[in-house]
Amino acid sequence: MEYQYPCSHHWTTEEIIAVIHFFQAVEKAYETGIPRDEFMAQYRRFKQIVPGKAEEKKVTKEFEEVSGYSAYQVFQKAKQAEDNKTIIIKHT
């Protein structure tokens, strides 16, 4: 992909890498599918770094604007899915 992932100058290098892994998990849900448990593990780590709802919405909206991929849609599908079911989002 030809875009930059959103990040904060307040995050450590390790946190930036974890956030990028989360966004890559979102991409994977759209491109090839991702096991629910794998996505949720990435989401839980993301929430450790971005615990507030307002900041989460800001960062995921920035990501959606540059990528076209909705972290919210993937999360909603993951919440509804059975354990370790593969999550695939059809891109419209």
Automatic annotation (TrEMBL):
Pfam family, one: UPF0223
Gene3D superfamilies documented for this protein: BH2638-like
Highest taxon above the source species: Bacteria
HAMAP family: UPF0223
Protein family according to the UniProt entry: Belongs to the UPF0223 family.
Name the UniProt record assigns to this protein: UPF0223 protein JOC94_003783
